[in-house]
Write a sequence for this structure.
């Protein structure tokens, strides 16, 4: 029997746990079952208590204290410990039916799923190639304020593309916290970031500062403090990254405002399509029609 789930990922501060809470609330309002898994060993505050919490197995604080590690090293140790104790996940998830949506809340250290094979190994255990046969998709959140700094936006988009390649899962990429930019960026401008391409750099307002410094001192060393702070020395690199993303043409974004129920529902519909949730649901029997004796009615 198949199971269904979504892995919520993204950089620190992207709003992953807030999105998980909004998703759970939306599912409950629509009378759908869900199972909330927290895999962030440092997380403490939740709007909805996790049904399964990695801190029941190991916490970041304990790993740092006992192993003498820093935050990043401690996080990697926690996930290596989880991989050595996968029964912790298997025993909790295996009994779930196909009516549940399994929501897995990940930590914000993106190196876990961009260039360290820890999370890809975990994903293989969860999906059809592993023990649990879960139809998974990834929801990668990127904070919408990144669009104000286009070089930063392309760096975030590159991390999303890296996660897509590493995890080999259906992906839903999301610009979160749209309420933070709706008053400063027009809808027309935001639409340009939905399908990123290198034309966004052609009219980047931050380029004007670099151009001004360059015109003031054409012989300036590109590695000097002024050039670096103005971003002039990174212009070619930014364009190369943007061109790489454009060439792959893998990343497009959905817009999310967790305060808007319709916005959360729209993201959920894309997740359902990616994991083919509705196709696996049994058709429900309609309510039995009330029997009516027409002969008795005529006699009356």
């Amino acid at each position: 029997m198949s199971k269904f789930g979504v892995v919520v990922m993204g950089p620190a501060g992207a709003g992953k746990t807030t999105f998980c809470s909004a998703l759970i609330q939306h599912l409950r309002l629509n009378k759908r079952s869900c199972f909330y898994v927290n895999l962030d060993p440092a997380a403490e505050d939740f709007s909805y208590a996790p049904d399964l919490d990695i801190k029941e197995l190991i916490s970041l604080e304990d790993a740092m204290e006992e192993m003498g590690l820093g935050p990043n090293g401690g996080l990697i140790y926690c996930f290596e410990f989880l991989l050595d104790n996968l029964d912790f996940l298997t025993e909790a998830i295996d009994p779930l039916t196909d009516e549940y949506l399994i929501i897995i809340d990940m930590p914000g250290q993106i190196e876990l799923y961009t260039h360290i094979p820890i999370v890809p190994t975990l994903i293989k255990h969860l999906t059809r190639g592993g023990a649990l046969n879960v139809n998974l998709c990834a929801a990668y959140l990127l904070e919408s304020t990144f669009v104000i700094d286009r070089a930063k936006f392309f760096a975030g988009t590159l991390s999303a593309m890296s996660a897509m390649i590493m995890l080999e899962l259906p992906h839903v990429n999301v610009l979160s916290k749209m309420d933070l930019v709706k008053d400063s960026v027009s809808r027309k401008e935001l639409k340009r970031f939905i399908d990123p391409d290198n034309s966004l750099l052609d009219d980047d307002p931050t380029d004007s500062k670099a151009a001004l410094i360059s015109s003031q001192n054409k012989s300036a060393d590109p590695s000097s403090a002024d050039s670096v702070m103005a971003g002039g020395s990174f212009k070619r690199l930014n364009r190369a990254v943007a061109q790489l993303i454009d060439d792959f043409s893998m990343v497009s974004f959905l817009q999310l405002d967790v305060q808007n129920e319709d916005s959360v529902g729209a993201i959920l519909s894309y997740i359902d399509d990616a994991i083919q949730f509705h196709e696996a649901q049994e058709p429900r029997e309609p309510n039995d029609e009330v029997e009516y004796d027409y002969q008795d009615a005529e006699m009356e």
Q: What stands out?
A: The first strand starts at residue 3 and ends at 9.
